[in-house]
Design brief:
This is Ubiquitin carboxyl-terminal hydrolase. The protein is built from 25 helices and 30 strands. It is of the alpha+beta class. Helix 9 crosses helix 15, helix 10 crosses helix 12 and helix 21 crosses helix 22. It starts with a helix and ends with a strand.
C-alpha cells in the first residue's frame, strides 16, 4: 500500500511545498467565502499556495491553477452530554484536536468537545488519503502535511505587529520607595498642585504629588511641573491619571526617559488609596467606561437599546459582523455600504465574474474580498434562525441564547488596512476616517469599471471674497462628506448647561463628586446655519491687492449626491492632543431639503479676483544664495519645538508653523496631519522667491512640470476612476509635484481643451465651462461629455430621506464602541457587532454619521 501511495503522488510531488518562513497558511477561512473547517463541507488548503477554499470554490482554484493536491480539514463540534444534575459529564480530553484554529463560534469550551479530521485530496478524482499516514507517504509529503497542520493561523503572525515599540519593565518597579506621608488621592477633581491644570495629569508614585505633564514625554501639552518635580526630588516613576483601568495604566520613567511597565502598579496605587478595580467598569461589550462618567453609561444604554427586549432578525441583509477586537468601526461602515444598491450591484451582482477573474491570490484582491463580504452579508447563509427543535430544547433548559453566527471581516480588514499605521493596528479608530479610506480604496480599484462611490461624490462651490477689495473667486472641489458643526451657543437648554458648569467647577474645587451631567440639545437647523456661515480664510493672499489680506469663504453645493453623508463634528482636541467627544443631542430629521444650499455661481455685479498667484516657494533659489538673516521667514520656534517633541520632523514642524501664520501649535498640528503624506514633507523650508507673474498662468513656471519623472500609476488611477482623462490627470500631477489634492484643484481651473495643445491657456478663458451642468436638476448620471470636463457626479434634487446612521459610545475616537441603525423594509434595525435586532427606539439624536438617500423628483 505504501508503494501504491508513493507512486500515486509522484506526478504531483513538484507541486507540493513545505511552508517556509513568511508563508501564511489560510486554514481557518476560505478565500471566497466564510467557509471554515467547522462548515459542513470543511476547508481545502492548497498544498502549493496554502490558500484555503470551501467545497464550492476549490474546483475553481483547481481549474485555474492546475494544483491537484489539497489538504481537507474538518472540525466536528459536539455538545457534551449532561448528567442527571445538569452538569457536563467529565471527559479526559477533547477527542483528537490537532488543528491550530481560531474558532468561528462563540462556544463555551466546557460545554462542547471537538474532534479534528485531516486528509489529502487529489483532484480531479477526489482520491482521499487519511492523515496522519507517516509510514505510507513519501517523506516530503509527510513533512509538508505536518508543517501545514502545525502552522499558526495566517493572521496570528500579523496581529502583534504594530508601530508601537515593546515596552520594558522599569528597573525601579520592584524596588520603588513610597513615602508614608498619608497622601490619599480622591476619585475625581484632580488638578495640578502647582498650576491647577486639570488635564494631562501625572501621579508621582513615590510621594503622591499630582502634577501636569510636558510636551516631550507623551505628546501632550502642559507646563512640565511633573518633570520639574523629578529634577528636584529624583522620584522616578509617574502614572497618567486618566489611563488607570482594572488591567493596566500608562507609566513613565523620568530617569529612563521612556514609557515603562510596572508589574506592581496595583500595589503602588493602593498606597495612595487608589483601587484599580474601582477605576473603571466594563460594559457588556467589553469596553471600558469610567465610573465617574455617568453620561457615558447612559449613552451606552440608550444607543444600544440595552434596556429593551429586542427581537433578533435573521436572513438576507440581516447578517452581523464579528468584532475582532476594537474593529466595530469596520463592521458599522461595511454594514451601511452594503445596504446601498450601488455597492450591492457592483460586488454581489457581479460575484461570479469577480471570482472567475480573480488573481491567483484572491486574499489580496480588493474586488474579491468586497464581493466575498457582500455575499456573506446579503446571502443569509450566515444568519439562519434556530431550528424549532433547538428552540424547544433551549426553552426547556431555560437558557435561550441563540444568536446568529455572523461573518468575520478578518481577511478584508487585513487587506484594506495594509500599510496604514492606524487601521492596521488593533486600536479603536474613527469610523468617519475609515469610511473615507474605504471610498478611496473603491476609487482606486474601480478604474475602467463601475464605481459605486460615484453615489457619494459631489462638487462643492467655494466663494472666496477679499474683504478689502470686495472681489471674489469661485472654485469647485470634490467631496464625499459634509461635516456639520455643533454650535453650543445654539443649545436650547443653555441655562441648564451654564448651571451644570458652575456646579461642576464648584465640585472640583471642593473635591466632591461631580453633579449629574447635562447633555446639550442643539437644533439641527442651527448646525446647518453654522455650516453656511462665512469662514475666515487663514493667511489669505489677495491677488487684487497682491498682498495678504482678510478673506472669507462660503461653501455651497455645486451638485447634490445621490447618497448624502453627514458627519456631526462631535470631536475636538484636548490639550493632550487626544480627540475628545462633546456630549450633544441633535434632532436630526428623517427628511431633509437642502435645495436652498445649491450654489449660484458668479452673480451680476460681482468682480472676480485677478488670475495671479502668490509668491512661490521654490525648492532651491538659484538666483541668489547670499540672502541674509534679514530675509529669513518669521517662525515661532517655540511652537515648532513643541511639535518636534511629539516626534514630527523638525523641518516639517517649522514649515507647519510658517504656513499657518504663527497661529499656535494646534493650527500647525492640523497642517502637519493634512500634509504628512506629501513627498517633501520633511524637506527644509526655503525662502519665498517673488516671480513676476503676468495675467496668464501660461507665463508662470507652474505650467511646466517641476519633476521629470512620471507620476505614480496609483495616483493616475485614482484620478481616472473619478472620470478625468488619463492625459489630463498626468498633466495635473506633473504640474503639482504629484500631490493629489493640488492636482484636483489644478484640473478644476484647467479643464481639458478641445484641441490637444502643449501650451496652457489663460485661466480666465477656461473657467466658465468648467462645470456647465452644475445647476442641472436631472436625476440621471452625467453624460460622457461631462466626464471629460470633470469628475463623475450624480446630480439631482437636494431632497433626502434618512436611511442609516452610525453612533459612537465613549469619550474619544480612540476608545469606545460603534453600532449602526439601518432602515430596511420600513423598519429600523440595529447592528451591534454580530447581533442584529429590530430597533424599538432608534437614538437618532445621538448619531455620529448620518446617511441620506435622495428622494425622486416625482
Amino acid at each position: 500500500m505504501a508503494a501504491d501511495l508513493g507512486e500515486l503522488l509522484v506526478p504531483y510531488m513538484p507541486t507540493i511545498r513545505v511552508p517556509r518562513t513568511g508563508d501564511r497558511v489560510f486554514k481557518s477561512e476560505c478565500a471566497f467565502s466564510f467557509d471554515s473547517p467547522e462548515s459542513e463541507g470543511g476547508l481545502y488548503v492548497c498544498m502549493n499556495t496554502f490558500l484555503g477554499f470551501g467545497r464550492e470554490h476549490v474546483e475553481r482554484h483547481y481549474r485555474k491553477t492546475g494544483q491537484s493536491v489539497y489538504m481537507h480539514l474538518k472540525r466536528h463540534v459536539k455538545e457534551r452530554n449532561t448528567g442527571a444534575a445538569g452538569c457536563a459529564i467529565p471527559r479526559r480530553k477533547n477527542g483528537k484536536v490537532f488543528l491550530d484554529l481560531e474558532l468561528n463560534r462563540d462556544f463555551n469550551g466546557e460545554d462542547f468537545e471537538y474532534e479534528d479530521e485531516a486528509k489529502l485530496v487529489i483532484f480531479p478524482d477526489h482520491f482521499e488519503i487519511p492523515l496522519p499516514n507517516i509510514e505510507e507517504l513519501p517523506a516530503l509529503v509527510t513533512i509538508a502535511c505536518d508543517a501545514v497542520l502545525n502552522a499558526p493561523s495566517a493572521y496570528k503572525k500579523q496581529e502583534p505587529e504594530s508601530w508601537d515599540e515593546e515596552i520594558q519593565v522599569s528597573r525601579h518597579a520592584r524596588s520603588l520607595r513610597q513615602l508614608d506621608n498619608g497622601v490619599r488621592i480622591p476619585p475625581s477633581g484632580w488638578k495640578c498642585q502647582k498650576c491647577e491644570m486639570r488635564e494631562n495629569l501625572w501621579l508621582n508614585l513615590t510621594d503622591g504629588t499630582v502634577l501636569c505633564g510636558k510636551w516631550f514625554f507623551d505628546g501632550s501639552g502642559g507646563n512640565g511641573h511633573a518633570l520639574v518635580h523629578y529634577k528636584e526630588t529624583k522620584y522616578p516613576l509617574a502614572v497618567k491619571m486618566d489611563t488607570i483601568t482594572p488591567d493596566e495604566a500608562d507609566v513613565y520613567s523620568f530617569e529612563e526617559e521612556e514609557a515603562v511597565l510596572d508589574p506592581h502598579i496595583s500595589d503602588h496605587l493602593s498606597h495612595f488609596g487608589i483601587d484599580m478595580l474601582q477605576m473603571q467598569t466594563k460594559t457588556e461589550n467589553g469596553h471600558h467606561t469610567e465610573n465617574n462618567s455617568r453620561p457615558r453609561v447612559s449613552e451606552w444604554e440608550v444607543i444600544q437599546e440595552s434596556g429593551m427586549k429586542l427581537k433578533a432578525v435573521f436572513g438576507s441583509g440581516y447578517t452581523g459582523i464579528k468584532n475582532l477586537g476594537n474593529s466595530c468601526y469596520v463592521g458599522t461602515v461595511i454594514q451601511v455600504l452594503f445596504s446601498i444598491p450601488d455597492f450591492q450591484r457592483m460586488y454581489v451582482g457581479n460575484l461570479q465574474r469577480i471570482f472567475d477573474y480573480s488573481p491567483l491570490d484572491p486574499s489580496q484582491d480588493f474586488a474579491t474580498q468586497m464581493a466575498k463580504l457582500g455575499h456573506g452579508l446579503l446571502s443569509g447563509l450566515y444568519s439562519k434562525p434556530p431550528m424549532k427543535s433547538e428552540l424547544i430544547e433551549q426553552v426547556m433548559k431555560e437558557e435561550y441564547k441563540h444568536q446568529q453566527k455572523g461573518v468575520s471581516p478578518r481577511m478584508m480588514k487585513s487587506l484594506i488596512s495594509r500599510g496604514h499605521p492606524e487601521f492596521s493596528s488593533t486600536r479603536q479608530q474613527d469610523a468617519q476616517e475609515f469610511l473615507l479610506h474605504v471610498i478611496n480604496m473603491v476609487e482606486r480599484n474601480s478604474a475602467g469599471s463601475e464605481n459605486p462611490s460615484d453615489a457619494f461624490r459631489f462638487l462643492v462651490e467655494e466663494r472666496i471674497q477679499c474683504c478689502q477689495s470686495r472681489r471674489v473667486r469661485y472654485n469647485q472641489r470634490v467631496d464625499y462628506c459634509i461635516q456639520l458643526p455643533a454650535p453650543f451657543e445654539a443649545a436650547t437648554n443653555r441655562e441648564e448647561l451654564l448651571a451644570y458648569g458652575a456646579k461642576r467647577r464648584e465640585a472640583e474645587e471642593n473635591m466632591r463628586a461631580p453633579p449629574e451631567p447635562v447633555r446639550a440639545r442643539i437644533p439641527f437647523t442651527a448646525c446647518l446655519q453654522a455650516f453656511t456661515e462665512p469662514d475666515n480664510v487663514p493667511d489669505f493672499w489677495s491677488s487684487a491687492l497682491q498682498a495678504k489680506s482678510a478673506g472669507v469663504k462660503i461653501s455651497r453645493f455645486a451638485t447634490f449626491p445621490e447618497y448624502l453623508i453627514l458627519q456631526i463634528k462631535k470631536f475636538t482636541f484636548g490639550v493632550d492632543w487626544v480627540p475628545k467627544k462633546i456630549d450633544v443631542a441633535i434632532d436630526v430629521p428623517d427628511f431633509l431639503d437642502l435645495s436652498r444650499m445649491r450654489a449660484t455661481g458668479l452673480q451680476a455685479g460681482e468682480q472676480e479676483l485677478p488670475d495671479l498667484l502668490p509668491p512661490i516657494v521654490l525648492a532651491e533659489d538659484t538666483r541668489d544664495n547670499s540672502m541674509g538673516s534679514a530675509d529669513s521667514p518669521e517662525i515661532d520656534e517655540a511652537a515648532a519645538m513643541q511639535l518636534a517633541e511629539m516626534g514630527f520632523p523638525v523641518e516639517a514642524c517649522r514649515k507647519a508653523v510658517y504656513y499657518t501664520g504663527n497661529m499656535g501649535p494646534e493650527m500647525a498640528f492640523n497642517w502637519i496631519i493634512a500634509h504628512m503624506e506629501e513627498p517633501d514633507f520633511a524637506e527644509p523650508l526655503t525662502l519665498p522667491s517673488m516671480i513676476d507673474l503676468g495675467p496668464s498662468i501660461s507665463d508662470s513656471p507652474l505650467g511646466a512640470p517641476p519633476l521629470g519623472n512620471s507620476p505614480p500609476e496609483e495616483s493616475i488611477a485614482i484620478l481616472t476612476s473619478m472620470g478625468f482623462p488619463r492625459t489630463h490627470s498626468i498633466q495635473a500631477l506633473k504640474a503639482t509635484n504629484n500631490n493629489l489634492e493640488r492636482a484636483l484643484d489644478w484640473i478644476f481651473i484647467h479643464p481639458e481643451e478641445e484641441e490637444d495643445s502643449d501650451v496652457l491657456s489663460d485661466m480666465a478663458a477656461t473657467e466658465p465651462n468648467g462645470f456647465s451642468n452644475a445647476n442641472s436638476h436631472s436625476n440621471s448620471t452625467v453624460s460622457p461629455d461631462r466626464e471629460a470636463a470633470g469628475p463623475r457626479v450624480k446630480d439631482g434634487p437636494g431632497r433626502y430621506e434618512l436611511f442609516a446612521f452610525i453612533s459612537h459610545m465613549g469619550a474619544s475616537t480612540m476608545s469606545g464602541h460603534y453600532v449602526c441603525h439601518i432602515k430596511k423594509e420600513g423598519r429600523w434595525v440595529i447592528y451591534n457587532d454580530h447581533k442584529v435586532c429590530l430597533s424599538e427606539r432608534p437614538p437618532k439624536d445621538l448619531g455620529y454619521i448620518y446617511f441620506y438617500h435622495r428622494l425622486s423628483s416625482s
